[in-house]
Structure formats: C-alpha cells, structure tokens
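As a warm-up, study this chain.
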Amino acid sequence: MQKTRRGIRLVIVCLLAMMCALPSCLFCSFNNRAVAKANNELKLHFIDVGQGDCIFVELPDGKNMIIDGGRKEHSKWVVDYLAKQGVTKIDFMVATHSDEDHIGGLIQVLDNFEVANIYRPFDLCSFMTSGGFKDELYIRFEQEFDSKYYVYNETYANFLEKVYNETCGGEQSNIKICSDKEKLISANADYPYMIEFCMPTAQQVFSTSRIYQGYTIKQEEDKNATSAMVLITTSSNTFLLCGDATIAEEIELLNKLSEAKKADLKNLSLLKVGHHGAKTSTSDILVEMLQPKNAVIMVGQDNEYKHPNQEVLDKLTKIGCVIYRTDECGNILVQEVNGSLQFSASKAREKAFVWVIYLVLSIVVVVNVFITVMLDSQSMCSYIPVSVFHFATLYTSVLFTFLRYAAKYIALF
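Now compare it with the structure written out below.
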C-alpha cells in the first residue's frame, strides 16, 4: 500500500508539472511578436468585430493607422485591443464610408485616444446631433446635392461631431476627405512605405476653414459605391484593403491604373476582400488581374446576410489564394518578418489553450477517482468515489466555461 501511495504521489507531481509548463508552451508565439516589432516591419491587425470592419496598422516607421472601427457595440473591444498594443495616440484614422458597421466603434476610439489626422467619408450627413452639430459638408453642398444622397444617420452624425472636436497635442486634428488624391509616404528612408487612397475618385476640388483640401465625389445612393480603398506598399509586399467597395469601384480602379502599376500589383500579397465577401464585390477581373496570394474576409459568424458568398470563395480558391476569415480565426495578425508574411489567429490559440487545459483536467478527474478507489478505508470507498467524481466533473465543467471566455481575452495579440 505504501508503494501504491508513492506511485499516486508521483502521478500527481507529474500532472502539476505539466500544468505549470503549459503557459510557456502555449504563449511562446509572443516572442515572435517582439522580434517582428524590433525589426520595424509592417503589422496589420484584423480585429474581429463580428459583421463589420476594423483594421489596425502598425507602420514600419513607428506610426500607426486605424481603418474603420466596427459597430458601436464593439467599441470597448476595439479600445481594449488597442490599449493592449500599447497605443496612446493614433496617427491616422480612416473611416472608409458612413455605414454603422464601419464607423460605430470609432466614436469610442476618439474618446479614448488622441488622433492626429482623420480621413472622413464625403457622405453628407443631414442629421443634427443633440448638441446642435451639423455636418459642415452638408451645409456646404446642401443646395447642390439631391436629398436622396444625404445620410440621415445618428451614429454617423455623432461620429462627425467627435471628429470636428478632436484635438491632438492641444491642436485640432487635421481633417481630410477620403479620395484618390490622398497619399502618405514614409519620411524615413530606412523604413519605406506608401499608403494610397485608390478610391473613391475625386471630381471637384474644394476647401473649407477646417478641411485644408478635400474633394467632392459622384453622388451615389449606395454608400458602398463611395467606399475608400486603401493600398499599402512596403519594400516587399502590397496590401489592398477594399472596405465595402463595389464591383463598379473595383473596375474603375483597374481602368485608371497604369500598366506599370498593374505589374506592381500582380500577385498581390494580401487582399482584404470587399464588403465582407458579398457577391457585390471581388469581381472576376480584380481577382484575375491581381492574383492575390492571401485574402482576409472580415465577417460575422452565422450572419443574416449569409456572407461570405460561395462564388467569391470559389474564385479565390481557384487561383490558389489562402483565405483567412474572422468568423473562423478571430483576430488575425499579419506581420512582415524579413520580407515574408506570417499569419496568426486568436481563435486557434484560444482553442489550443482551452482544450489542452481541459485534457489535463480530465486526467486529474480520472486520477482523483483512481486515488479514491485505492484508499484502504471501506467506509470511504463506499462514499468518496461518487462524490469526488461528481465534484471534479462539476469543477472541470465550470472551469472549462470560464477558460473559454478567459482565453478569448488572453488571445488579444
């Protein structure tokens, strides 16, 4: 019996050692993050905000950019995510268009971080906020635009009010309009990159007291038809982020590209698929011309729109494009490492973390029952096996549920 008990103690010690070793095994990938950051290479965070878009970009020269912010109900998630990255200031904020699933979460971002430069949609907002704010572009173009092109949207109005009140370092943020005239180039030759607003197409130049230079664009009832498309180019890779751009916008973009530019974009490193994988985006000609190696689809799990469309998935798969989806992967981190791209996903780590812990706890339950059975007290043998087993099973079930939610938070990159 003494030998049996020594064996049991050894089993328990081994199990405890396994549990202590788990954190270092599961989270060793964080070391790769530190290396990539030290090399000052580009990182794109596709933040899982359900049926919406939110992309955080860490640029090679240390600056950053946020493109859209998901819905209002995801605001805290976005703010917490940015805080976990050590963000205290945002250099560039881009709102691709006025849809709530793109700009809703940006309101809290403006409340929690200083933003130096803001690129707002041209969409005219005719809604007046409770504070009396009215969009200055609406005031400027009210007589020129047909009323059916106005956006009567409280969320958009509240976002614009925050935009025009935003200060950074004590000065008002620089506000511009998303259009194809905008371009950002790294001022540091050691860390080259270029950010181009490919769409929407500018048609008429204007200026106001707050907007140094902006552009009117074609009037569209469908606000997706004026969605910004952002192209990021580094020394090694190209990334096209399409917002909710329509097929018409995609074709317009391709038609105005020079042959040299088309050659540069051939075998695109990454395509952020337009409009959550809807069939109204990702045209055959775009896929055939750019031949993207990788694609990210930002989409909500079991969403009512049935996104992404199967035809879109098929045409990407047909050319050998690797598809990453936020509904399947959670947060998706794409980082340049010595010119190559590395992908990691929060749900993959969450599942690994939870299931390894669950496996270990299951072993603990079995060992608990085994220990109880081996006890030499007959009275305990008749009572403890059932009670211990029930307790251990309940304990495991509760802990497993807790770990599922804990792992979701831990998995923030």
